[in-house]
């Protein structure tokens, strides 16, 4: 792989910092956070541009302001919260939502070459993290002879399977997107094609091993859409590759259907939903629990529709409502809303919730106009995952969203504000 770019020295260092952050992102350690802090300090180390000029450019960029508003609303929510201890923890977790876009939107827009460079580091990080998961799971299977160690929480070493599935799903979409752009006249065409397809297969099997229902469905839909799109563009090879992958997966399912955790989780969800509503006190399954969580969240939202409960009080309010509804499973696990939109509306009411939705909607419209297809795929994966998970309530989701949202939006050569 070639690691080259055309920026001057300061810009080289900037690109390298982002690349290192993406390399360590799948490992859920403090290195990516440290790099984030270095990036923030890096903003002030600039001999070419005055600080006042950079700030002016930043705060006249509508997309940047909307992105930063997600964190700024949390600061406003401090004015009417009572649990400042929880609020301070929440603000710490979500700090990348401010720091990362603040820095990236103030820097020079990324070229295609820059973007390809940093994605290589993200891909390498996912390869290493997933390889460790497979090696660790294989060893544990050898020791225990239990197939369950090959799937879901037992398999995922560094983070919850839902988040790792999101990482791998987006990375796979990116690889297939790059496959469709490979120049057939290039001397390295076959080599590049083989490498990208091999890595994509590896990630797809990783998603399957992680057994996240949302991860499998949403990533699958994104790849199917990409396949159909490329088929209409007469990219028959890419479509055939996806069909072959689907065939291999179906064969594996038929061979190991009694041991594969992903299948049992889908079957369990089907059984839970088909069996009808239970009393809240008897609810403990993943799917039925979400229904009870959303019911409780709705009750809280109705009572606090205008301004929400504030930055620090959502956990206390959820626990109160769970106890009131005798939803003991929710109390025991201290469940958040498992829906980022509901979570945001409860926190900041209808105004804050609408700002949150616009912060996705407006950049997506601009990206479609500028033919920024990769951002469209990214935002599809995010907004659909947020329907069943509060993706921005954990460090894994916050850093992933903050980095790629800013990287992909600050990519077009055309102005996006």
How are the secondary structure elements laid out?
Blueprint: H1 9-24, H2 31-44, H3 51-59, H4 62-76, H5 84-93, H6 96-104, H7 112-144, H8 152-155, H9 161-179, H10 189-210, H11 213-232, H12 236-256, H13 261-274, H14 286-303, H15 314-324, H16 328-333, H17 340-369, H18 373-385, H19 395-409
Helix pairs in contact: 1-2, 1-7, 2-6, 4-6, 4-17, 6-19, 7-10, 9-10, 9-11, 9-18, 11-12, 11-18, 14-15, 14-17, 17-18, 18-19
Explained architecture:
The protein is mostly helical and 417 residues long. The longest helix has 33 residues, at 112-144. It contains 19 helices and no strands. The model is unreliable at 1-7 (pLDDT under 50). The protein has one domain.
Descriptive key words:
disordered N terminus, 0% strand, 417 residues, mainly alpha
Q: Total helix count? A: 19
> pLDDT below 50 for ≥5 consecutive residues: which ranges?
1-7
Distance between the termini: 34 Å
pLDDT averaged residue by residue: 82
Sketch the major β-sheet.
none
Taken from the alpha-carbon principal axes, the silhouette is globular
CA radius of gyration is 22 Å
Please give the number of β-strands: 0
Total number of domains: 1
Task: State which percent range the strand residues make up.
Answer: under 5%
Q: From N to C, what is the helix and strand string? A: HHHHHHHHHHHHHHHHHHH
- Helix content range: over 70%
Structural class: mainly alpha
